[in-house]
Amino acid sequence: MIESLKKLFSAPETEHHKPSARDMAIAATALMVQLSRVDNDEDERELQAIVDCATKINHVTRDEAEEILNHALNQADHATSLYEFTEQINEYLDQEGKESLLESIWRVALADDRVDKYEEHLIRRIADLLHLNHREFILARHRAESESS
């Protein structure tokens, strides 16, 4: 018994694959979907902002972005935490990419012309999980606000 436990703990870890660009696009879009749902008012303007951001971030057509959104909606329906999405994003994106993603998430929050306390709290949690500091959190918000004005 002890030998089998030793083998179990000394066995090499299974290889962890790096997420593909499509996996990352779905994960990033799923974060935006989670944000659009946090205030219990999934607004059509927010969904359009998600498609716009997915198009811009992933350099895809509008049809492809809508397909990514559909996959992300499904992923978000079955998600148990934000970590499953942020883990993939942290593996795939560099710091600048994560800041750009956070800016897009702010754009989704601003799409309905108001940011409630639940949205801001969720964005702060996402920023923390993406290893972005308070300064980066605030700068992303300001860039999103200046673009939406």
Automatic annotation (TrEMBL):
<feature type="domain" description="Co-chaperone DjlA N-terminal">
    <location>
        <begin position="26"/>
        <end position="142"/>
    </location>
</feature>
<protein>
    <recommendedName>
        <fullName>Co-chaperone DjlA N-terminal domain-containing protein</fullName>
    </recommendedName>
</protein>
<dbReference type="InterPro" id="IPR007791">
    <property type="entry name" value="DjlA_N"/>
</dbReference>
<dbReference type="InterPro" id="IPR029024">
    <property type="entry name" value="TerB-like"/>
</dbReference>
<dbReference type="Pfam" id="PF05099">
    <property type="entry name" value="TerB"/>
</dbReference>
